[in-house]
UniProtKB/TrEMBL annotation:
The Gfo/Idh/MocA-like oxidoreductase C-terminal domain, residue ranges: 161-414
Biological classification of the source: Bacteria, Bacillati, Actinomycetota, Actinomycetes, Kitasatosporales
Domain of life: Bacteria
Residue ranges annotated for the Gfo/Idh/MocA-like oxidoreductase N-terminal domain, each copy included: 26-144
Biological source species: Streptomyces coerulescens
Similarity annotation: Belongs to the Gfo/Idh/MocA family.
Name listed for the protein in its UniProt record: Gfo/Idh/MocA family protein
Cited SUPFAM superfamilies: Glyceraldehyde-3-phosphate dehydrogenase-like, C-terminal domain, NAD(P)-binding Rossmann-fold domains
Length: 436
């Protein structure tokens, strides 16, 4: 079906609190891990949304996705450029393409009248983020950035406890993102985000989530930023004696903490979290032959000390907000793969959280109260602690039911937190404090 071209409106329904009398139609622009996950979640609510088209350059992934979602051949596209050459075919475009394509895809689709759910980061430069925001505003686009951490039950609970005065007035915050040693080696040494010139700064690619979340929790504009970080370990100077260019030929492959053969074969044989990385490495083909081929010829088989990566492997960011609240943020490769850790310091208590559990310590009573925010007993790492599903549900309900207040990662707040990230990068490169 082809929808008639019409003047774009901020919400499909046109009238607040007036539910649409049909399901929203979605085109998935990029059917990789993120696009596929969002499509699966939307498909759980067929009365509210239907996936009707896909744009994906990898033919095997495109055809498997189309078969799963019953997409007819005429709505299977080789890439997002093809969507720009024809009238709008769906209500919503879910954009999960490489970061460098966000600008052109988002502006082009907004200009055609699509409503947009855009994977983070918005774009790879501050100027491009501004251009996307401008396009959304001039088209009346319902734009939401996939800052899933804003939507989790954990964050919602924090949003109840803090205004209620559980720890008094917030004075400062300490937040750690433990990326995990093999996750970092996969994504930021061997993978798509290893080089700033090919993708974006590490802070933007991995942790714009966190800067956005901290800003959301504090609830005030960022005033000043400083930052420090560098590439310390994953470089040729740190290579152990005898290391070769590829793990599959390396005599140290069974003892190296960053061995590709260990990581991806563990994922193949034992499943679990590592299987996700193996699936990415082989483009979804979970066989011994596919893993061996990828280790022998692909980027994920390279030695972490002999790659062409240049993004930092550790970084700290200091933030001062309007009113004097301060926050410190640390991201590091050198951890187990585990949940983020946060401490919030208030005038009457301290709050400690891990993405699922929240412990409130009261200064007056010297008691500790623990809140478990998991809905099903899962860890904070699974589905971003419920954030993926909560984001999709909020966005679909906002459009389908005419409830814009459900989108809490819209244009203005997402643009503001991206500006803070770019300011932090300027501070890191210049050794200065940057004022916003």
């Amino acid at each position: 079906m082809t929808l008639a071209r019409s003047e774009p409106t901020t919400f499909i329904t046109g009238e607040p609190d007036s539910p649409l009398q049909r399901a929203l139609s979605l085109v998935i622009v990029g059917a990789g891990a993120r696009g596929g996950a969002y499509a699966d979640l939307a498909a759980k609510r067929p009365d509210v949304a239907r996936v009707v088209a896909v744009a994906e350059p990898r033919s095997r992934i495109r055809e498997a996705f189309a078969a799963k979602h019953h997409i007819t051949p005429e709505y299977r596209f080789d890439g997002w450029h093809q969507l720009l050459a024809r009238p709008r075919i769906a209500d919503v475009a879910v954009i999960a393409v490489p970061d460098s394509d966000h600008l052109a895809a988002a502006i082009g689709l907004a200009d055609l009248g699509y409503q947009l759910l855009l994977e983070k980061p918005m774009a790879t430069t501050e100027a491009d983020c501004e251009k996307i925001a401008d396009a959304a505003r001039r088209n009346g686009t319902a734009l939401a950035i996939c800052h899933v951490m804003r939507y989790t039950p954990y964050t919602v609970k924090l949003g109840q406890l803090l205004p209620e005065g559980a720890i008094g007035d917030v004075v400062s915050l300490q937040h750690l993102e433990p990326i995990g040693h093999y996750h970092f080696a996969h994504s930021f040494v061997r993978g798509n985000w290893r080089r700033e010139d090919d993708s974006s700064p590490l802070l933007l690619a991995k942790s714009c989530h966190d800067i956005d979340w901290i800003s959301h929790i504090v609830g005030r504009p960022v005033a000043r930023v400083s930052s420090f970080g560098s590439l310390t370990h994953f470089r040729s100077e740190a290579a152990p004696e005898g290391a070769t260019d590829r793990c599959i030929t390396c005599p140290l492959r069974d003892t190296c903490a960053y061995s590709a053969t260990t990581l991806y074969r563990d994922g193949l044989r034992n499943g679990g979290t590592k299987q996700y990385f193996t699936r990415v490495m082989t483009a979804g083909e979970l066989t011994e032959e596919a893993v061996t081929t990828a280790l022998t010829t692909g980027p994920y088989g390279r030695c972490v000390y002999h790659s062409d990566n240049d993004v930092p492997d550790h970084q700290v960011v200091s933030l001062e907000f309007d009113g004097g609240v301060t926050a410190s943020f640390t991201l590091t490769a050198f951890t187990p793969l585990e949940n983020r850790h946060t401490k919030i310091f208030g005038t009457r208590g301290q709050l400690t959280g891990d993405g699922r559990h929240i412990e409130v310590y009261d200064f007056r009573t010297e008691t500790r109260t623990v809140h478990d925010t998991s809905l099903d007993g899962s860890s904070a790492a699974e589905g971003h602690a419920g954030g993926d599903e909560a984001l999709i549900n909020a966005y679909l309900d906002a459009l389908h039911g005419g409830r814009p207040e459900l989108i809490v990662s819209g244009i203005d707040v997402s643009l503001a937190s991206h500006r803070a990230v770019f300011a932090a990068e300027r501070a890191r490169h210049t050794g200065t404090v940057v004022q916003l």
